[in-house]
Specification:
The structure is a single chain. The C terminus is likely disordered. Strand 1 and strand 2 form a beta hairpin. The chain has a 6-stranded mixed beta sheet with strand order 5-4-3-6-8-7, sandwiched between helices. A two-stranded antiparallel sheet has the order 1-2. Helices cover 45% and strands 11% of the residues. It is globular and about 65 Å long. The chain is α/β, with parallel strands linked by helices. The chain has a domain of 228 residues: Rossmann fold, CATH 3.40.50.620. It has 12 helices and 10 strands. It binds Fe4 H S5 and zinc ion. The site of zinc ion has 8 residues, from helix 12.
C-alpha cells in the first residue's frame, strides 16, 4: 500500500479516514489531528502551562511527545502505585516515563503513593476493603486526588490525560447501556475547573484511535510498557472495547461516529441533567475541594489505613503535601 501524500511505502492504513501514510507523513499527520482537537474543544493555548499525567504507556507518552512537538509547555506527572503483578508493572512504568523525560529534557514530577502516604495501592485496597479488595476504586480515588492536587498547587492551567477514542467510547457505551444520565452529561473532552481548587482536565487524544497511538509510538521510537496494569484484566472496559472493535471491523469509523454524534447530541442539549446541588467545600484536613462533610474521602481513607498500620498521625499540612521543590514557579 502506498502513502497518500508521498507515494512511498505506507506503514498504516486508517480505513476510518480512508488514508494510508508512510512513517514520516504519519508522524506529522497525527500531531496535526491532535492540534485540531485542542483548538476545536478549546483545551489550551501555547500560553498555558500543561501537566500531562503519564503512566509509561503508549497513549500518555505519545501525548507528551505530541504536545512537545506542537510547541506546548508540558511537564509530566507520574504516580507510583506500587503495583507489581509479577513483572514489576509500576517499576517499569516509572522507569520508562523517566527515560522519556530525560531523553527529551522534560520535567517529570514523581509521586510515589507508598513513600508519600504510607501504603501501596494493592495494600490500601485490602485494608480499606473498598471494592472487596479490588484496587481500582481506591486507585482511581488516589490518582484523581493526586493529579488534581499537583496540577492545582503547581499552577498548571490544564491537566492532560492520555484517554484515547477507544477509552472514551468504551466508557460511553457502558454509560449508555445503563443510561447513566449524570455520567453522560459529564463525559466531555474538557472538564472545566468550575469550582475553586479544581484543575481543568483535558483529553487531547479523544478522537485518536488506540491503534493510531500504538503506530505513533512505533514510528517515533517511543519505548513504552506493553502490558496493561494487571488489575485491568477482565474489566468491563476491556470487554466493551472488544465489542466495539468487532463493530469497527465491519463498519470502519463506527467508534468515531458514535463518539462525535454523542458530542453533537450533548451540544444539542440531549443530556442536560440538572447540575448537582451538592456544594463543594474545602476538606478540613487537606483543603482539597470535596462534597463530603468534614474530611474528603481521600483523607478518610488514609486515616483508616494509618490506624490499621499504626502509622503516626499526619499533621494536616503534611498529608498530601508535595515537596515545594517539585513546583518551580
Ligand atoms: S485503576 Fe485499576 Fe487502572 Fe489502577 S489498579 Fe490498575 S487497572 S491502574 S486504569
Ligand atoms: Zn482531604
Amino acid at each position: 500500500m502506498k502513502c497518500r501524500k508521498c507515494g512511498g511505502s505506507a506503514v498504516i492504513n486508517m480505513r476510518q479516514h480512508k488514508l494510508a501514510l508512510c512513517a514520516e507523513d504519519y508522524a506529522a499527520w497525527l500531531p496535526d489531528q491532535v492540534q485540531k482537537s485542542i483548538e476545536k474543544y478549546r483545551m489550551f493555548t501555547s500560553a498555558d502551562k500543561v501537566l500531562v499525567a503519564v503512566s509509561g504507556g503508549k497513549d500518555s507518552l505519545g501525548l507528551w511527545d505530541i504536545l512537545c512537538k506542537l510547541g506546548y509547555k508540558a511537564d509530566g506527572l507520574y504516580i507510583g502505585l506500587g503495583i507489581d503483578g509479577g513483572f514489576g508493572y509500576s517499576d517499569q512504568s516509572r522507569q520508562l516515563s523517566q527515560q522519556f523525560a530525560d531523553a527529551h529534557g522534560l520535567r517529570l514530577h514523581v509521586v510515589e503513593v507508598e513513600s508519600t502516604y504510607g501504603a501501596t495501592i494493592p495494600e490500601l485496597a485490602v485494608i480499606s476493603n473498598r471494592g472487596h479488595g479490588k484496587p481500582c476504586s481506591v486507585c482511581g480515588l488516589n490518582k484523581r486526588y493526586i493529579m488534581n492536587r499537583v496540577a492545582h498547587d503547581g499552577g498548571y492551567t490544564a491537566l492532560a490525560t492520555g484517554h484515547n477514542l477507544d477509552d472514551e467510547v468504551a466508557v460511553l457505551m457502558q454509560n449508555t447501556l445503563v443510561w447513566a444520565g449524570g455520567y453522560l452529561a459529564r463525559q466531555a473532552p474538557v472538564l472545566e475547573a468550575n469550582r475553586p481548587g479544581l484543575a481543568r482536565k483535558v483529553k487531547p487524544l479523544c478522537r485518536v484511535y488506540e491503534r493510531e497511538m500504538a503506530a505513533y509510538a512505533l514510528v517515533r521510537g517511543i519505548e513504552y510498557i506493553y502490558d496493561e496494569c494487571p488489575h485491568a484484566v477482565g474489566s468491563t472496559t476491556i470487554a466493551n472495547k472488544e465489542v466495539l472493535n468487532q463493530l469497527e471491523e465491519s463498519r470502519p469509523g463506527a467508534k468515531l461516529q458514535f463518539y462525535l454524534n454523542f458530542l453533537q447530541a450533548k451540544a444539542a442539549g440531549l443530556f442536560n441533567v440538572p447540575a448537582s446541588e451538592a456544594e463543594l467545600h474545602a476538606c478540613e484536613r487537606c483543603g482539597q475541594p470535596t462534597t463530603a462533610p468534614g474530611e474528603c474521602s481521600f483523607c478518610r481513607l488514609w486515616d483508616k489505613v494509618r490506624t490499621v498500620k499504626g502509622l503516626p498521625e499526619c499533621v494536616p499540612a503534611a498529608l498530601g503535601a508535595m515537596p515545594d521543590s517539585q513546583f518551580p514557579q
